[in-house]
Amino acid sequence: MENIKTIGVLTSGGDAPGMNPCIRAVVRTALDKKLNVLGIYGGYEGLLNGSFRPLGARDVGGILQRGGTILQTARSNNFQTIPGRMKALREMNSAGVDALVVIGGDGSLRGALSLMQEGFPVVGIPASIDNDIYGTDMCIGVDTALNTIVDAIDKLRDTATSHNRAFLIETMGRKNGYLAQHAGIVSGAEMVLIPEIPVEIESVIKAVENAYIRGKTHCIIVVAEGFEPNTTVIAERIAAMKIGFDTRVTILGHIQRGGKPTAFDRMLATRYGAHATRLLVEGKTGIMTALQGREINPISLEEATSNKKALSEEYFNLATMLAR
Ligand code: F6P
Question: For the chain, how many structural domains are there in total?
Fold first, then answer.
């Protein structure tokens, strides 16, 4: 787009490891294209409050390896209202922001779509440890979160084996079981419980009992936070059956969102950031960068936000088949 002189960049929703390398790539690609960059602090809340600050090459130095987001993030209810969005548009107008890069998850990308529908040029970048965005194989932060989970499960298995215990380990992911499913496979869990595939609690108890009978010294069950009934209820039911294993619960929680991004996440974030900025310069809008295979392709924000990402049944079957 000929008339773009200044772009804004914000991070929104839950933070994800890799947001910082993405910001760095946006800023430095924009500088390479002779554009100015304004960092928007505090997500959409910062957008409608006019919390803008110029970002130069040095401002994004030394952040590649840092988790979290230097721009900070928020979940903004105000931005979901029409007056809130109008205020955001006025703030951008008076600060001279011509186009925007939004780095965030599902809700953040829907926010980006609403700006596009008001005629404002915007490109979205999927960043969420949940990996629940339709149209892209991977979001920023997923690989790092997975490695954190797997590291925790490896450690929990050590103590589980020493004590002959069943461990229920809860992962994040809202209504999406991606993290639990993938972590379960690569850490050799005895069972994975995800919201997409209902399982009767009796079957869970049976699986724990079978693991004990087969002579296992531990039983690792990875439970996605969206699974029902919740982790504590399942643990109580297992404990009440006095199967042989003592039972413990570990809720991994926000530790999954922190930590330095893996090489994979740094590379993905860097490619997304550079790609998104180039798209804006070419006058493309209403688009999200998506990893499809090894390629980064643009897909419409409309498509990305109006479809539900499905989990692969193949992975579920693999997890079940290998848990012997
Ligand atoms: O969307 C990312 C995520 O970490 C989810 O997995 C989790 O359900 C939620 O955010 C937690 O949100 P908050 O950080 O606001 O407690």
Answer: 2
Structure tokens belonging to residue 127? 């960043």
Name the residue with the closest Cα to ligand 1, atom 12: 14
Indicate whether 228 and 274 sit together in one domain.
no
- pTM for this predicted structure: 0.97
**Residues 249, 215 within the same domain:** yes
Q: Which domain holds residue 126?
A: 6-141+261-306
The residues lining ligand 1, judged by C-beta closer than 6 Å to any ligand atom, are 14, 105, 128-130, 172-174, 225, 257
Q: Which residues pair with residue 295 across a beta bridge? A: 292
Distance in Å, CA 174 to ligand 1 centroid: 7
pLDDT one-digit tens code per residue, 216-250: 999 999 999 999 999 999 999 999 999 999 999 99
| Residues with a known catalytic role | 130
Q: Is 253 left (phi over 0), alpha (psi -120 to 50) or beta?
A: left
In a domain, 195, yes or no: yes
Q: Residue 89's closest CA among 117, 58, 64? A: 117
End of a domain among 219, 241, 257?
A: 257
Residues 250 and 286 in one domain: no
Q: pLDDT tens across 107-120, in order?
A: 999 999 999 999 99
Give Rg (Cα) of the chain.
Answer: 22
The per-residue pLDDT for 3 is 80
